Amino acid sequence: MFQDGEVECVSVPSTWKVEEIEHRHSATQTSVILADDKEVQLPERCHVEVQTDSMDDSAQLAVNSQDIDAPKVLEFLNRVYPLISEQLQDSISTHAFHDYDVDWSEDFGGLACIHTLEESIMSSQTGVSGVSWSSTGSTVAVAYGRLDHEHLCTHKGGVCTWNIESQALNVNKADVILDCMSCVMCVAFHPSMPALLCAGTYNGDVFVWDLSRAGEKLCFSNSSDDAHQDPISSIVWTVEVSNRGKKYQIQSAGTDGLILTWSLPVSAASSSYLELVAGHALCSNSVPRSLKGGASSRSTGQFGASSVSFSSFDRRQFVVGCDSGNIFKCNLGLVHHSSANKGLRSPDSAVAIGKQRGGSIAGDAQLKSPISFTFMPLKGPVYGVDCSPFHRNAFLAGGSDGCLHVYSVLQNRPVFSADPSHGYIFCSRWSPARPLVCAVGTADGHILVYDFQASEVQPALTLDGDTKKAGVVSLEFCPKRPQYIVCGNASGQALVYRLPSEFSRPVKGEDSRLKSLIEI
After folding, report:
1. 495-515 pLDDT tens trace
2. How many CB atoms lie within 10 A of CB 120?
């Protein structure tokens, strides 16, 4: 059924290795992209002024005389003339509006504490010892130090500044922090240059910083026998006007009884030291024994200065409050003295102080006593004196007796006194806007604002300056914006208050009222 068979093989030869394959190269691309640059701008503008047609003075409203009823007009005039004439005569002779002045000033609003400034790095170990406003009224400088030293100062103090107008204000973080090796006891901004700031320390050093250079220390006092050896209690900028212009100097007062005058170097590159150009000493032998009050606090026979205020009318005249309770009227230009005045120093006092200091100041110029008049001493240290910016003879004084005294430099006793019963008075300041308004800081942590126009005894406002009742040790009105007042307390806080508008608006006749109070 099945059998073997043989079949021929069929093969198909390959052609791809034999025949040559034709290759061709070609390229393709998109159409050429055309680009064109053109300038485009806003259409042209044209400014045109448009006004009404000029008035023709000759063109007047034509009135038809025939439309006027003369009898009725005459009857109207005869009826209203007597009444109008009577009122006009009364307005001439009346005094109803003689004391009325239109008040165009801005209403600042009511009383408010707008800022509570505190730098934890400083306030943890020290309290506020001084405050100051810049000349622009926008920056507050706060000095940190302790007032309860018993021995050498081992604390690190400093100065902090806040720009209260800045939108980035952080009340718990100062804009600038200036460190010192000892407690800072007082601070003062330059009167016209808001970047310059000076301070006095517990060790007797004077520093000047330039805030425009990130708080760079511009210059400082040289440690010498002629400089302060004890804490500086007050520091003030003064100006001397001459043909060459204005020259600013620094006056420092210390508890060693020295009043020293410092001058800034010509340039920071020439020297980093302040130049000591003059010096005065509060000599105890310049004062009659009956007016010396407590014993002199220095074995050298000098009264320690606890507060100083220079007159706005004569920059060489100033008032000094002492830790012995004495109050002196002084003059930096005092050379010759009258023997008739019992409050003047003896001729040998300058020589005596020069020997006690063991050196000389500014080219062998001996220290002289600037005391020209003495007042009845208070019962305890005088912590705050302030000369009035409105009357050349008026000044405030307050101290450990707890009373606010208003003095005239022409009388050795207070013109009048107020006892607020709030403990020691650590500071007192006149308002730069109203002649009869002042403020004091008390030991129980209050700020008392007096308006002598309303009452010479009772304070018009009582503000909380320290919730911990540690005491308000410094306060300053803002010269640029007198509705603002800043106070510093021993707890390490600086509070900025906005006073009601009536405390910063001048009142008519207030200058005359102050004059009548002082010149009794």
Report:
1. 999 999 889 888 888 999 999
2. 10
Residue 355 has a pLDDT of: 39
Query: DSSP string spanning 466-484?
Result: -TT---EEEEEE-SSSTTE
Residue 68, SS3? coil
List C-alpha distances in Å: 141 to 94, 167, 186, 193, 435: 52, 18, 10, 14, 25
Q: Compute the distance between CA of residue 122 and CA of residue 492 in angstroms, rounded to an integer.
A: 7
* Beta-bridge mates of residue 13: none
For residues 182 and 202, what is the distance between their CA atoms, to the nearest angstrom? 6
How far apart (Å, rounded) are the C-alpha atoms in residues 253 and 278? 12
User: Tokens 């400089």 correspond to what residue?
Assistant: 227
pLDDT tens figures, 382-436: 999 999 999 999 999 999 999 999 999 999 999 999 999 999 999 999 999 999 9
If one counts every other C-beta atom within 10 angstroms of the C-beta of residue 451, the result is 20
Query: Tell me, what amino acid is at 456?
Result: E
Q: In terms of Cα–Cα distance, which of 178, 188, 322, 335 is closest to 249?
A: 188
As to burial, measured by CB atoms within 10 angstroms (0-12 exposed, 13-18 middle, 19+ buried), residue 448 is buried
User: What type of residue sits at position 403?
Assistant: C
How far, rounded to the nearest angstrom, does the alpha carbon of residue 63 sit from its chain's CA centroid? 67
Q: How many CB atoms lie within 10 A of CB 510?
A: 17
How far, in Å, CA of 280 to CA of 257, rounded? 8
Decide: 386 and 395 in contact? Cβ < 8 Å: yes
Residues 6+ apart with CB under 8 A from 296: 284, 302, 303, 324
3 state DSSP class of 330: strand
Please tell me which residue, 92 or 372, carries the higher pLDDT value. 372
Which residues lie across from 394 on neighbouring strands? 408
CA distance 427 to 131: 11
Quote the pLDDT of residue 17: 58
Task: Please write the tens of the pLDDT for every residue from 223-258.
Answer: 777 889 899 999 999 988 777 778 899 999 999 999
pLDDT digits (tens, 9 = 90+) for 361-384: 544 446 788 999 999 999 899 999
pLDDT tops 70 at residue 340:
no
Q: How do beta strands 206-210 and 176-179 pair?
A: unpaired
Please determine, for residue 152, whether its predicted confidence score (pLDDT) is greater than 70.
yes
Residue 360 has pLDDT above 50, yes or no: no
Nearest alpha-carbon partner for 275 in 286, 283, 265, 285: 265
| Rounded CA separation 450/373 (Å) | 28
Cβ neighbours of residue 81 under 8 Å, at least 6 residues apart? none
* Residue 145: Cβ-neighbour burial (10 angstroms; 0-12, 13-18, 19+): buried
**Over residues 95-116, mean pLDDT:** 72
User: Biggest alpha carbon distance in the chain?
Assistant: 174
Instruction: Give the Cα separation of 448 and 455 in Å (integer).
Output: 13
239's enclosing H/E stretch is: strand 232-242
